[in-house]
Amino acid sequence: MERLLFRARALPALSAMPDHQLPALLAHSDPQPERVSPNVILFQRGERLCFWYLLLSGQVQLYLDNPQHPGGGTQLRLVCPGTFFGELRTRADATHCCSAKVVQTADFVRIELRHFVALYNKWAEQLQGCMVPMEELVAEVEQNVPGGDEKFGLGWPPKQIPREAEHLPKRRPPPEARQRRERHSPKHQTNGTQLFELGLNHSSIDNQILRAASQLREAISGTDTGPISGSELCKRLRALCAQWLPELRQPFSPLMLQGMCQTLLDRVLLVHVRTEHALFRDSSTARYRWLPSSRTAPMSPLDCPSTSSALLLLALIAADTLFQHILQKPPDDRTPEELELVFEELSHIRAFGHMSRSMKCGLARLICWECREHAGTVIFREGDPGQSWFVLLRGTLEAKAPGKRHSLLQEGDDFGKLALLSNCDRSQRQSTVTTAEDGCQLLSVDATEFNRLLCEMETSTVRLKEYLEPEGTEESDVNDNDMALDVLVLQRDAGGRHWLIAGLPSKILEYTLETRIDHLAEMCGQPTVGTSSSGQADSLLQDVLLSLPLWMPSNKVCNMLKLYYCFGTSNSVEPGPTVDDLREWTRTTSTATKRRTVAFVRAWQATAGHRFFLDSVANAFVEELFSCVLEDARTAEDAAEGRHLEEMVRQMEALMELREKSMQRLSRLPRTVLDKGMYAEDAPAPEPVLPCDLCNQTVHCTSGNSVRSVTLQLRMDKSAAEIAQMAITAWQAVQHSVHRPSHLDGDSQQQNGGRTFAEKAEEKTGEVAGVDELVLVEMRPGEGEAAMRQFETNECSVPTMVAQMDANQLFVARKSELYRLIPPAEPPLPSARPQCLLLGPTRMAKAMALHHFKLLAATSDSELLVQVVGRDHFPPALAPSNLDLLLRRFHLVQCWTGTELLLAPPQHRLAVLQALIELAEHAFQQKDLLSLFAITLGLSHLPVARLHSLWAQLPNICRHRHFRSQFLLAPARNHRNYRLLAQQLRPPFVPFVPVILKELSFVHGGRNSCFGDGLINFEKMHLIAQVLRSFRLAKGEQCHGEAGEATPLGSAIARLAMGQARTDETLIRNLHAVEDQRRLMRVSLAVHPQGHRPIPSISDIRCDQITSDQPWRNGMAE
């Protein structure tokens, strides 16, 4: 940088510039000048606007292209050394208004656009003599302003640039220049997005922020154009959020309000009156002013939806702005609130997923944020000393190593780990890493600081050991250090509290009983889980209870609780105790152990809800514990002990009363949940589905060339093997002829002749077809492996796992005959009468929200754990039937969206599209995020997204609404926008369950549950409990899992059901949809047969790449 400043100051045009201005201008520029050969085109008219340029040597020609004479054009000006040239427009969709070509070998540096414009607003008068705004040159020429030749040295009419003669040799641009031109060319951007599916990203994030800024300016300042202090701006913004966002769980924190203002300040929508401070200050002395409204596009009237969405959009982007600015601060200047925000962000980055909580808290103090503006920038070269460890936060990098293939690093990848190994010969870089695109963001950790952090972590780790003496070994021959085993590993955080890292299952349970139970507060007769004696949030007890099924079965839990209740320890006592010994144990054991056991059982039941009593072991243990407490209270010798035991008796009586009520609910008559794949009218929701509930399911039995169908009433706890046996037994009980199957290939139609299914199989193979040889499969229309799904023999609740489609069928076949199965024929297309127009978006959104809230109320958080871990690891009574119904509903709404639009009459198709977008908007207002994202994904499927003529007719307000839905669904940073939204919404709301399952699968699959020495990896349990806790918070459950009318979820259901017509819920309960995307594509091609251009998918595109420069913007320009 010093050499660059020395060279720039040597230029005559820049010699008179003040000393502090030139370093500020070059602070966000290339570190070294770039040399470009003659005849190389720097940029062309219409390409994306990204930089300002400072010419250090040579000459650059600015000109306008002549479409009638390729290679010729109108010259605007020859730029000489010491001149800044560029444009002052900062919109993301801004493009160059002219072209630039190197005339003489030129050295120049590029300056980030927003940085230069921000400084220009401050030093406009000083920079006028050494800068060339290109838009002013074009305006002079196009408007034919007199006097332009005297001002710019141009003759009038403008001189024509002669085309190059064909016989002259053409110089090929350097590879770096060609790559840069290709990256910024519209053609390159179009080709890079041809494989994406999801679309309609017609508006960029910056444009949306411009609209939000305009709305906020009118709401905050009105017609007042004067400056406003930072504290007053935050105060008005807080009042605006309280007025327009009443559904927030809690008001925005002061840090979040500062982040929202900082977002406007970074984008030069809000500027300091003297442009002295780059960071926003919540102070009465710091005064700011809004940028003139001419920079923003025309806005819609300020109404409730637009204002609330503007505030929500700004809050989501403000979190990322805060994250970047916090990491640019020195470590000692970061406040505890800022460190907590950084810790939350690091927890969802893949590179930090395997680290402990204490390690991530330490990294929040040390980690730094870096940005590489230009593609081709070298991060480090091969042979450089390793001094930092990097994590790619955004963008793509290219790693080149000698003798190896080049590899690409994507978002979330880390590199440079060898730098963390101190005193290692391999600490030198083994490859060269460069940026593959512009705007790459990195997180860096200094190797020295990281090693120091490791030492601090080891110092703060507490290991509780247990010394064992092997049998047959003399005490003098035993080395205590060799026989010491870790039974509990704790880590002390910065606040002095100990965080459980690992331990034996019995010791974890005993540690929880000893340290967390005594300080449980009583609230409404239920223990409030997660409060320690210091009053600070402590989630250890809730983490233990939520993850308990994963690391300890209920029978072992009950046995250890028995030991702790009787003897004050979770370890088994020595064998053969006498009656006097047991009496002495009982007399010396404190009443606290009994009280802790009772409190733990009550907290366990409160967390598990009704599923606690589905476990026969836990159910019997409650009765046994009640008997023990009654007996101890009757034989109490001390008055104080008797009072404590009487209190425990009252608590156990309340638990037994709750048990009786739950058993009455669990022993109700079976109800039909599904009737041949359709959701039954008498389904129990919002009550949970029980193992005794039934499903009427048609099963097709196959043998050879025969297919026989039988309708069975299946209990939810029946496994796939039992269903196969029931199907065979049903056909052994009846005898009738076999019809020619339509799903198998073979000869002419055959008759059974009165033989049973098993007898015919015995004649074919010489042995009876047993259950082990039969499999249960689901057949779908289509081809290949996707058309067949085979169930495991021990999988339960099979009917709820089958998609709610008419064509999907269940088959029982032998493994040797699976290849003979043919997918079922496609059913007729549903009716072309759009349901969304029949009911209207408002009524339909309310009916769908009511139905989804009922399904959510029936779903327990433990079902998420069963779904991810595997159904074969849990009893059949704990099968996730309710979760299956919720997921199949999401899949149904997603497929129904595309079916509804494509099958609508042509004259109604645009109205259906508008109604679907409005339906998603109303779903968001009803806090039904499941419907919101299901409709958004359905509209983003390729059969719908390719209808460009239909999307081009969509009004702008509908486009903005659909863009907001896509922005919330963006998968960048582990669905960061959705997570921030879920944290801010006031419960209850229907969460986006697929994202929760994805995060839970990532935690479960990325970490081992146990270490080699038998210790439970409780860091994994903490993360699993955190995901499950987010699901409970969405339901509004804090301390218990019941879904009655007294809970917030029950109140929401009652509110939605008030005034709701029963016919509305009946109409939306079973939507008609086509699941096969290939069939929908055929319908789409019939609707719009022209060549289609796929629209990018937000599942593959980052938020910062959603710009209006996409190939469909011309047909949908605002």
Automatic annotation (TrEMBL):
Domain of life of the organism encoding this protein: Eukaryota
Composition bias type Basic and acidic residues, residue spans: 161-179
Record-annotated Ras-GEF domain positions: 840-1090
SMART domains: cNMP, RasGEF
Key word Transmembrane helix present: no
GO-annotated molecular function: guanyl-nucleotide exchange factor activity
Region (Disordered): 149-191, 739-764
Limits of the Cyclic nucleotide-binding domain: 13-116, 351-454
Protein keywords: Guanine-nucleotide releasing factor
Record's GO cellular component terms: plasma membrane
TM annotation in the entry: none
GO biological process: Ras protein signal transduction
Protein's UniProt name: Cyclic nucleotide-binding domain-containing protein
Organism of this sequence: Globodera pallida (Potato cyst nematode worm)
